[in-house]
Amino acid sequence: MSIIFSHDDLQESEILRSIEKWEKENSKKIQTLVTPFKVFYMAENYHQKYSLKMHSAILEEFKKYYPDDNDLINSTAVARVNGFLAGWGAFPQLEEIGPLLGLTEESLEKVKKAVQIR
């Protein structure tokens, strides 16, 4: 489950306003919890990058670059691909940043195909 932590009332209202704007523009509901930050506990490694785990060939490619689980979990590129595979992000965004993600052309095409299907 995704979550956004706010640090004060102003930040929370800006987050909620942004969510509302995005939902109106995209006719989709954002399933993200917005809550005040108190204490954060990272989920266990086996809970991380769930959508990417459904695409084992792409995950295995990333594991070549990030053999350590913590490095894999903390990678921005891995997080972005996981987000795209989970349905967050549009094809034009993927086209723009795709070459920067470090994937082979074959894996990048698999991500593009998954994004286009939605």
Describe this structure in words.
- It is a single chain.
- This protein is mainly α and 118 residues long.
- It has 2 domains: 1-41, no CATH class; 45-118, no CATH class.
- It has helices spanning 9-26, 50-53, 56-65, 69-74, 76-85, 91-97, 105-117, and strands at 2-6, 32-36.
- A two-stranded parallel ribbon has the order 1-2.
- The longest helix is centred in the first third of the chain and has 18 residues, at 9-26.
- The chain is globular.
- It starts with a strand and ends with a helix.
- The model has no long low-confidence stretch (mean pLDDT 92).
Outline the secondary-structure elements:
Layout: E1 2-6, H1 9-26, E2 32-36, H2 50-53, H3 56-65, H4 69-74, H5 76-85, H6 91-97, H7 105-117
Parallel strand pairs: 1-2
Which percent range fits the helix content?
55-70%
Query: Number of helix segments?
Result: 7
> Approximately what portion of the residues adopt beta-strand conformation?
5-15%
Straight-line N-to-C gap: 19 Å
- Quaternary status: single chain
Biggest sheet strand order reads 1-2
Shape: globular
Q: Report the count of strand segments.
A: 2
Average pLDDT, rounded to a whole number, is 92
Structural class: mainly alpha
Largest sheet: 2 strands, parallel
Q: List the helices and strands in order.
A: EHEHHHHHH
